[in-house]
Write a structure and sequence with these properties.
202 residues, alpha+beta, Aminopeptidase, 7-stranded mixed beta sheet
């Protein structure tokens, strides 16, 4: 996390920041529109909170941003094989029907800052490492076993989350549609994925 932690500043993504910064462009029109127009509405309605990193040498530049909210993994809604995979590292006496999670609702990296010369890790990897470490920090005010994400069902975002050790919550598009009530003839726009934070505590 060298570049993000050493050359950027972590901030709440609010109206003052949006108005003082250059338009955030992560090369995805849907994400750009969300961060520009909808993230504050989500905050006002208590549906999600957005954070970002700005560049120290030019605070008008937003390097990356993400929105998070409370969520859970309801194992009783999963196929048996997937349920066993999700809870395999949870002691049997701690088994529950639902496990606390945080949802990454949106995540984007400025297209000009995805690769930083001299850095061994891409900015997106540094950002995900930051988010993971944030939720196992002793100062975290709530229990959070998993990080979940509803990733765009495209090669690039799926590869990003897979490279960051996220696992599909369902084994296939067809299974996800079956268990989430999506008509089988519908194209699945997103895929549910999860990361078990306990691996970082061991």
């Amino acid at each position: 996390m060298g570049f993000l932690l050493n050359k950027c500043t972590f901030k709440v993504y609010n109206s003052e920041l949006i108005n003082s910064c250059a338009p955030f462009d992560c090369d995805n029109p849907d994400l750009n529109d969300f961060f520009r127009n909808d993230s504050l509405k989500y905050h006002d309605e208590l549906l999600g909170k957005t954070y970002c990193f700005t560049l120290d040498e030019n605070p008008e530049i937003i390097v990356c941003a993400f929105t998070i909210s409370n969520d859970s993994i309801k194992t009783f809604l999963l196929p048996n094989a997937r349920k066993k995979k999700v809870i395999k590292d949870i002691p049997r006496e701690k088994t529950m029907k639902s496990y606390p999670a945080v949802l990454i609702g949106r995540l984007g990296v400025n297209k000009k800052y995805r690769f930083i010369e001299g850095e061994t890790e891409r900015t997106g990897k540094q950002l995900m490492d930051f988010i993971k470490s944030w939720f196992i920090d002793g100062a975290n005010k709530t229990g959070c076993r998993f990080i979940v994400v509803d990733s765009y069902n495209d090669v690039s975002p799926l590869r990003y989350y897979t490279e960051n050790q996220f696992i599909p919550l369902f084994s296939s598009d067809e299974q996800e549609k079956e268990y989430t009530g999506i008509p089988i003839d519908t194209i699945l726009a997103t895929r549910l994925m999860y990361f078990d934070l306990i691996v970082l505590k061991r």
